[in-house]
Amino acid sequence: MEHITPIKEIDSIKDDFTIKVRIIHLWTQKSKFNAKETYSIEMILMDEEGRKIHAFRVKKWFPKFKRYLKEDSSIYVKKPNVAPNTLNFKFADPERKLNFYHDTTMKECENFSGSAHGFDFVDFNTIVSNNIMESKSFDIIGHIFEYGRMDTSEEDKSKHKMLLHLQDIEDTKLKVTLWGHNAYYMIEFLANNNSLAPVVVIVQFARVKFINGRPFSSTYFDVSRLFINNDIDEITSYKNKLVSENGQQLSSSGIKMIASKQNTEHDDFLKNHMFSNIDDLFEPLEEKTVIIVGTVKGIRQNIRWYYLACSNCYKSAKEKESSTDKVDGSHEMAEIVTYECSNPNCKNIKISVIPRFKIPLRVQDNTGTLTLTLFDQEAKKLFKYTAKELYDKNKKLGISLDLYPMELKVVVDKKLAIKIDITSYNVDNKSNIYGIARLTENANIIDELEKKNLNSQHDNSDSFIIGSSDIASQETKVVKDSFSHTGENLTPCARDNSTATSPTKLFSTPTELKRNLATCIDLDEMENLSTSKTPRLSPPDEQPIPRLVPKKEK
């Protein structure tokens, strides 16, 4: 038997060594240039001491290793290649990863004596008390007491998500978001499982983000692995403890669905808010939420497309300079750049920053063009890259960060339905600076909105119907006259019943009806109506207000 090298002793100086490992998780990585094409197979390996390392193989070596690479199988790997682990989020050895190439060989291992899954559990209290690193994965175990509906508002299924409320043995509660295939796995289980046992969940390789001091735990792309009531020692042991702590068996029927606070995309755009045109947003008169449909014509170049955000609360961070002693013992001062969060409620003492989208889009409909700011959350629906990825790329290539990256051009000429919140700031300051609260490219929703707008325009034009189909009939006469009553000049409209052969009707616009106004149309106006599809009416605020019938003098 040749010498087996433990993971902790792997060294990039050596290239001829053998490891004995178990594949505890395996997934595929898609190409950045073609989402339908697989670039590599990724895996997490664990040795008999329980240490883990990330390994991968690129597409051209698939046939050579295919028969050996199966999740939960054990293998010997000879002459893997060592590479640095440059990922920001670490889910295995933080320094190194392994690459399998043409010199690498494998064979099956039948006597692996280590753990089956290598769980590294963190208790819920450690997470909720902020005593865990954001940059490193962890494992959690708990039972479900509430769950949310699947959010499928994104077109990309990997961005579909659902929320779980978990509880541990000590009754500490934790919110966990499942993404993509893990969310669908959970939905399918809950739909088909009718057992009396509690639903115990293990999330392996989970991550946490702290926002305003609150932990938000989630699965991490395809890296995370989900176990639901599996017949494994860890879940069996948890159930036994749960029964002994509660004195009775818990039932899955006691799991409640979380009342949804997020409106569906359909309701948000088609039911809950009124449709508006861009020209209605130039001078906002009241606080409200509106929906518009517009086409992105471009991105403004004189405004930055990103902002540096506090990694804790995502509010903007300000750069400030400070100085410290140089470490070379010269007693000279070195200038260093630090950041200060603009949020006074942020409790993060050590500030780190991350670029996030703040893109000034020029959006146009048939009434005008307006700048709308696209922030990070909604930008994810339109772009393949994060703001940080584009920021780092441009910085590395020496491209000015004031110029927006070419990758953002994919948004130009897109037709979008956009939700906009008109705030008190907009009304008080007559400001037409708006952010995009929500957007969708859903063609069905956009079609419905455009039909509603078209029907609304037809309804308004139909309200201006005067007289019979032959509106210019010479048999219809309008008599103009003037009356004077207590100093008021009244200009009524009347019809000579002796000569008219068709009834004449006067309908008002909705605005005029509300104000209870009557509009007089004289003979010249009637001639205009006979040659124009759009009648010319007096302004609704015109004074004095005309009356159809003058009051009789007492």
UniProtKB/TrEMBL annotation:
Residues 5-109 form the Replication protein A 70 kDa DNA-binding subunit B/D first OB fold domain. Signal peptide: none annotated. Residues 526-554 are annotated as: Disordered. InterPro entries: NA-bd_OB-fold (IPR012340), Rep_factor-A_C (IPR013955), RFA1B/D_OB_1st (IPR003871). CDD domains: RPA1_DBD_A_like, RPA1_DBD_B_like. Residues 292-426 form the Replication factor A C-terminal domain. It holds the Pfam family Rep_fac-A_C. This is Replication factor A C-terminal domain-containing protein. It comes from Lactuca saligna (Willowleaf lettuce). The lineage of its organism: Eukaryota, Viridiplantae, Streptophyta, Embryophyta, Tracheophyta.
